[in-house]
Amino acid sequence: MQNISENKLPEQLSMSAVQLKVGDIELMGDYYRNALGLEVLAEDAAGTLLGRGGTALVNLRNARGLQLPARGEAGLFHTALLFGTRADLAATVYAAARHDKSRFVGSSDHLVSEAFYFTDPEGNGIELYWDRPRETWNWNGGQVAMDTIYLDPNSYLDNHLSEESFTNLRSAGAGIGHVHLQVGDLATARRFYVDTLGFDATATLGDTALFVSAGGYHHHLAMNVWNSRGAGPRRDTLGLGEVLINVPSTDEVGKIAERLDHAKLENHHTGAELRFRDPWNNALRVAVG
Description:
There is one protein chain. The protein is α+β, with helices and mostly antiparallel strands. 21% of the residues lie in helices and 38% in strands. It contains six helices and 20 strands. It has helices spanning 25-34, 86-98, 153-160, 163-167, 186-196, 250-262, and strands at 14-15, 18-22, 39-44, 47-52, 55-62, 75-83, 103-109, 113-119, 125-131, 139-140, 143-144, 149-150, 174-182, 200-205, 209-213, 221-224, 239-247, 267-269, 273-277, 283-288. Strands 1, 2, 3, 4, 5, 17, 18, 19 and 20 form a nine-stranded mixed sheet that branches. The protein has a nine-stranded mixed sheet with strand order 12-7-8-9-6-13-16-15-14, with helices on one face. β8 (113-119) and β9 (125-131) form a beta hairpin. It starts with 13 loop residues before the first strand and ends with a strand. The model has no long low-confidence stretch (mean pLDDT 96).
């Protein structure tokens, strides 16, 4: 009998730069540089890679001519940028709120984190957040307690924004904490992301949202049907281009490829990386990193 741990993703798993297909590369580049304080890490005719402190966060790919996705299509719900301190988070929230192309969506205390939500000029969701210390998270039977409690943005900025953090906005570190997707149904999402790929299911919101992770994080990926219940495979549109997941070794890449093969799911495995798609045609890549 196969050891159940062999079917789990490694605890060192992390999320990496999210690729976005964009219609206006200049507008979107300006937004991510000036609203979110990202810097250009690489640039060519195909697009721009942006990040913080050398860490890649957003990969903008020029896709002029593609249409925007409909609200109810599968695809990206938001990309979540994780900050190391409340001051760093507050500085980026302040910069995003001041940008004339930014749309503030809301803010919440999720018990495990404090989060602020925006939408970029082409409708891609963005979460900016800070994690509370892991020892304060409340787990019960493998499920982590999360909630959505109103978080006053003005009070937050009053308490945590400093002149120093805003001045040093671009030098403060950040990472991709998680990626949240719109899908057609949660049962299919659970079969693919938990049963096949090997994530742990860490929380559910009835039949509307599923949160999954590796290594005891609250979530590396989430899927919801709030706008997209019943959605089928997505079209080639603007928006999400690719979700990148990093694992610590080529052995781990190979194990995921074997699980996809066992499930008879199409994938392309080069040894160093693995490319495949979820049931809604969202592109995923697993690589050593």
